[in-house]
Inverse folding.
């Protein structure tokens, strides 16, 4: 198969799942470095991809996610997550996304009632960011693949 040949649908799915797996692991390592216990969920858990095991760590987790966002994105004073009235829940989770995030997916994340943060390897729509802000959910977007997986050029 030539390098410029289109990849199959299966190859695209495998690639997206690999990104997802590696991004979840990267976020868990970041939390572990901050001494925050967390756990990868299984079975496509609708509550989120990473469970925060100590409820008292919720605010620290949200601060870490805001810092990750700031590291990879140009600051926008109109979208400061520092002033966010943050979501509280008895079961805090982080949701991981690998593709452009908008519309119905935003609503589904908010409706869980458990997601306190979203980390995306791609962009989040402007209206989606506003909805997360209103719901008290922090986010980090545009995480470069080179940060968490080996990328072949």
């Amino acid at each position: 198969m030539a390098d410029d040949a289109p990849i199959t649908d299966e190859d695209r799915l495998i690639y997206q799942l690999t990104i997802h797996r590696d991004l979840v692991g990267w976020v868990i390592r970041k939390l572990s470095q901050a001494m925050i216990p967390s756990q990868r969920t299984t079975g496509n858990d609708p509550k989120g991809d990473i469970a925060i095991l100590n409820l008292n760590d919720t605010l620290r987790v949200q601060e870490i996610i805001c810092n990750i966002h700031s590291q990879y994105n140009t600051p926008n004073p109109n979208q400061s997550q520092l002033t966010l009235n943050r979501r509280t829940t008895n079961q805090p989770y982080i949701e991981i996304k690998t593709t452009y995030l908008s519309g119905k997916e935003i609503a589904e994340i908010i409706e869980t009632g458990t997601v306190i943060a979203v980390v995306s390897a791609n962009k989040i729509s402007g209206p989606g960011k506003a909805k997360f802000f209103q719901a008290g959910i922090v986010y980090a977007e545009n995480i470069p693949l080179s940060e968490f997986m080996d990328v072949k050029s």
Q: What stands out?
A: The beta strands are 38-40, 50-52, 93-97, 115-120, 138-140. The mean pLDDT is 89. Helices lie at 9-33, 58-72, 103-112, 126-135, 145-148.
